[in-house]
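Typical record is below.
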Amino acid sequence: MFGLIPKEEKFFALFKDMTANIIEGAKLLKDMIDNYDDPQGMQKRIKDVEHKGDHITHDIIQKLNKSFVTPLDREDIYALSAALDDILDLIDASSQRFIMYNVEKPTPEAKELAFIILKSCEAVAKAVAQLGGKFEHIAESCVEVNALENEADRVCREAISRLFDEEKDPIQLIKWKEIYETLERATDKCEDAANILESVVVKNA
């Protein structure tokens, strides 16, 4: 199938597959934390999505190694595929923390961070969809990702501050601090992808 697609489109199609898969993972994470009626089952579904992401990343790297002509700099294609893979890894790691630590009930801050992760993934997908099109729209989406990362950072800081003020059980404090930081790192990875996309815009403007 990919042999029939022009070289420019091969990578763009795979990147779109990758971001669609990331959004699927982010939706599952949000659903898991919002409803929390079957966390183990939801975590398994997120792990399946993460495995699918690994396969797409592998396909991108294989195509990169076989292509003489690429639509973007080779290092940018490699860096973007790695950054997108990292987002999904952190979504998976976040869901695993809830199972590992036997969380009984997610906090409002965890739900808010899951919502921000989903919005960040959607903004990254919007930017990736513009590859090969109008690069100015990529910059707009990257600004949105940066704003969302700042918001996640604020929510995480305030949540941890409240933990130290109110949580008397040191074990619970350690657990929740790590959960909040892992969720926030997923938005950091979205920002990393946005930074690579912004650098692509500068190079190809």
Observations:
- The chain has six helices and no strands.
- Helices lie at 7-35, 39-66, 74-100, 108-129, 135-166, 170-204.
